[in-house]
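Entry: Cyclic dehypoxanthine futalosine synthase
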Amino acid sequence: MPILEKALAGGRLEKDDIVDLFISNELLLIGRAADLIRKKLHPENIVTFVIDRNINYTNVCQTKCRFCAFYRNENDPDAYVLSIEEIYDKIQETVDCGGTQILMQGGLHPGLPLDFYTDMLKKIKERFPHIHLHSFSPPEIIHISRISGLSVQEVLEKLRAAGLDSIPGGGAEILDNRVRQYISPHKISWEQWIDVMKTAHKMGMKTTATMMFGSVETYEERTNHLIRLREAQDETGGFRAFIPWSFQPANTALGGKPSTGVEYLKTLAISRLVLDNIPNLQASWVTQGAKMAQVSLSFGANDFGGTMLEENVVRAAGVSYHVPMDEIIHAIKDAGFTPAQRDTGYNILKYY
């Protein structure tokens, strides 16, 4: 395919090119091209993973996205805000397993002030000074900004001073406002999401980027998402990794059908071809399972993501894959790669 030849020759794919790839049925050709690009970027034949845990400090959320099965109202019987002792216990268990990263996110709770977040970070860092806090997605940052009356940069400065190390890419969904208005009408715009990330990057903070595909977006809108990430990365260089994952419709107000494995692999591979300036591409075993994540390593992915000793949001949507670290290592080896534990900055800590 001329489009793939263009990508392999180092040319940038434009919008029409990308849409044509999504429409195409040439899955194996697209996957092969993405694999070749992966080899150029990561010739050492290593696939990395991080030992981490997702901690959702609250499930109370005023945004009530139609695609989410996790959120609760403040007065619901199963609504919660974790105590600092509960958070300590979860982090200690992670550290005991060799963990280096905590991915901490929560709902947009209307009653939690800025001090809640800064105090939580400070206390965690006092108890666990070496744990990397990869926490608070752009919607949370905007929410804290609104509650505190401070600018996004001022909020980020205060969170960083309290112990925040980097920002996860949650809340991106599809970076197109038609889609966002339909699936999460009370959430931030795509421009606000990008602004938080670029502000963090310009402060020297690294972040990740995500995409939740397969809800109501068109291929053109999915393409817009990738191009907008590429443009932001051209400007700041602050995205360490990209993680696409498929919408999980069970137990959600939005409903619908889950994406097929073919659609996942095609989207992953096209992402590798388009995002020529984002170094790492993560497989999503959380939504796809270990076998599909293993196949992803031949479709452009170079990272298996986190071990995720705890994950609640996707599980609430009826998908509950659990992949122990031994199985991750085995899957990577079986795919012909050397497994390596990394930290959040993609520094190798240990080979297996």
